[in-house]
User: What shape does this take?
Amino acid sequence: MDVFLMIRRHKTTIFTDAKESTTVYELKRIVEGILKRTPEDQRLYKDDQLLEDSKTLGDSGFTNQTARPQAPATVGLAFRINEEMFEQLHIEAFSSPPELPDVMKPQDSGSTASEQAVQ
Assistant: This one.
């Protein structure tokens, strides 16, 4: 079955899908194709837990029930800084949309839109 993932690092978000039988290493290869960083320079996380390269996505807790198209599962991504260290996992919060202008806000009065147009 397909799982739908949202791979996030800082302000970068990648949406992708894969099979439950895909290994974490194969997912890193998908990221490599997009961000041009080798799998050895990547760490993937689920809920702050490091994912093992040899495990499948299904074994790591990503199923078609937990990673649906309309609600993809979040995977954290961290890159290698130097030979010994990886950066801390950091995911920026999504921005909030601006407040709606007054003309677009729903009217609180009990009249309908057609009644307001007649007035």
Remarks:
- The CA atoms of residues 103 and 113 lie 13 Å apart.
- The chain has a mean pLDDT of 89.
- Strands lie at 2-9, 12-19, 42-46, 49-50, 73-79.
- The first strand starts at residue 2 and ends at 9.
